[in-house]
């Protein structure tokens, strides 16, 4: 079943965390969660708004970003199809500290705060899943800081692509990534033209192949360890 035809319930049942729930718990989750369509360029979440939902991507791609006091756009992460985010902010019970924008037309799943907190109370396996999620997220952001401060653009593009293949944060992502060069630029902090140059270099190195409609990863470990 493709993501374009996948229903909300199909998506919920395909997640890693759903496998940890009892049938009764899953019935409530399916009843409480709801879907939203966000067009390209639209806001999935806005900085400063209250935290009402845990958010998943049924189909699409979003970027988590913020603006510096000088107006510079800083992208923290991209979340592709299958990823869920916002659990840290829900646990801290704070206003959202970042914007989340759709890089393409995106279908979003939302789990209300009440349901999320109920699962934390009744499901130890769900709590364990969230501990793993937070640990993986921490590793992702530590890597992001290192990449931004120490790496050139070619290497940042390689690491940006590799970071999307995290089996816990983004399960089910196939080796053919439906992502444009413009989107790679947004996520790696480069212009579309500069991202294109980096991707051509990675293709020459035999790490990726630039196909129509996306990028095919040929050597994931090579991407993770690539140094220009």
- The percent of residues in helical segments reads 40-55%
Task: State the strand order across the main sheet.
Answer: 1-8-3-6
How many helix segments? 9
Reported CATH architecture of the largest domain: Sandwich
Roughly how many Å is the radius of gyration?
18 Å
Oligomeric assembly:
single chain
What is the CATH top level name of the largest domain?
Answer: Mainly Beta
Q: Which sheet architecture does the biggest sheet show?
A: 4 strands, antiparallel
Strand content: 15-25%
Question: Which structural category fits the helices and strands?
Answer: alpha+beta
Beginning-to-end CA distance, first to last residue: 38 Å
The strand count comes to 11
Indicate the mean pLDDT.
86
Principal-axis shape: globular
CATH homology-level superfamily of the largest domain: Jelly Rolls
Low-confidence region ranges? none
The secondary-structure element order is: HHEEEEEEHEEHHHEHHEEH
Q: What's the CATH topology name of the largest domain?
A: Jelly Rolls
Count of discrete domains: 2
Please give a handful of descriptors for the protein shown.
Arc Repressor Mutant, subunit A, 228 residues, four-stranded antiparallel beta sheet, alpha+beta, 11 strands, Jelly Rolls, 2 domains
What can you tell me about this protein's structure?
It is a single chain. The protein is an alpha+beta fold. The protein has two domains: 1-137, Jelly Rolls; 151-227, Orthogonal Bundle (Arc Repressor Mutant, subunit A). The chain has helices at 8-14, 23-32, 87-92, 113-122, 124-150, 153-163, 181-188, 192-204, 220-225; strands at residues 34-38, 43-45, 53-59, 61-67, 73-80, 84-85, 99-102, 106-112, 176-177, 208-211, 214-217. The strands form three sheets. The protein has a four-stranded antiparallel β-sheet with strand order 1-8-3-6. A hairpin with a 5-residue loop joins strand 4 and strand 5 (73-80). Helix 6 crosses helix 7 and helix 6 packs across helix 8.
């Amino acid at each position: 079943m493709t993501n374009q035809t996948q229903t909300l319930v199909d998506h919920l049942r395909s997640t890693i965390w759903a496998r940890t729930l009892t049938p009764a718990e899953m019935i409530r989750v399916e009843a409480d969660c709801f879907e939203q369509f966000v067009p390209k360029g639209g806001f999935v979440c806005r900085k400063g708004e209250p935290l009402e939902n845990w958010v998943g991507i049924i189909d699409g791609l979003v970027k988590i970003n913020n603006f510096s006091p000088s107006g510079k756009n800083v992208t923290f992460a991209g979340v592709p199809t299958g990823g869920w985010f916002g659990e840290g902010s829900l646990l801290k019970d704070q206003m959202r500290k970042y914007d989340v924008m759709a890089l393409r037309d995106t279908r979003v799943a939302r789990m209300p705060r009440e349901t999320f907190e109920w699962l934390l109370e009744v499901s130890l396996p769900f709590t364990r899943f969230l501990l793993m999620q937070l640990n993986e997220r921490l590793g992702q952001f530590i890597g992001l800081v290192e990449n931004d401060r120490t790496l050139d653009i070619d290497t940042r593009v390689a690491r940006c692509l590799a970071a999307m293949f995290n089996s816990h944060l983004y399960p089910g992502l196939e080796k053919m990534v439906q992502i444009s060069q413009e989107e790679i630029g947004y996520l790696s902090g480069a212009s579309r033209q500069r991202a294109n140059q980096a991707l051509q270099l990675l293709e020459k190195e035999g790490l990726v192949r630039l196909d129509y409609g996306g990028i095919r990863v040929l050597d994931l470990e090579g991407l993770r360890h690539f140094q220009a």
